[in-house]
Amino acid sequence: MATQPDPETLPDEPERGPLRRCLINRTQGRREEMLRFVAAPNGALVFDPAATLPGRGMWLSADGNVIDLAIRRGVFPRAARAPLNVPQDLRDKVEAALTQRITELLGLARRSGAAISGFEKAREWLQSGRGGVIVQAADGSADECERFAGGRSIPRVAALSAVALGRIFGREHTVHVVVAPGRLAGMIEIEARRLRGVAKERVSGQ
């Protein structure tokens, strides 16, 4: 049987096209669903949540265990071909950055009139066909969340706590949010999936 090559020694791939390859498991994924890291001019490893920072990207799957393994194996300095200051709490930093990104996207959706909160008002949007994605509090009642969705075939994510959602919508707490179909809804869904893969606990953003 032929010997399989070490995944970490396979040749690098250029940053072009819609797919990126994880440094750890070498699986390919859509760039917007992966995690991009770059080396800062001061030699620090930086997470690039929007994948817009200059420099050669180093990509990982959106999985907290993969981040931890990347630190233990020291893959970032090898991929950068230079010494790097890799924070040991990198996973926490990634989780915080993704939480902030979801918060900002939901805030943008609210300000643009593309999102609404509250059980009754949000359900009216669903019933009128204005739902692109359902965002529910991670610490909300599972039964109530199911009842709200009503079996509709609309993407449903739970990324932030009820308190964190409430802050976005000017309430003490919020469990149910509906975002209208469109680019923002798609971005929020993707960011929520990335956060779910990275987060150590289900409830974040408190």
TrEMBL record:
Pfam families: YlxR. Residues 20-95 form the YlxR domain. NCBIfam families: PRK09190.1 (NF006622). This is YlxR domain-containing protein.
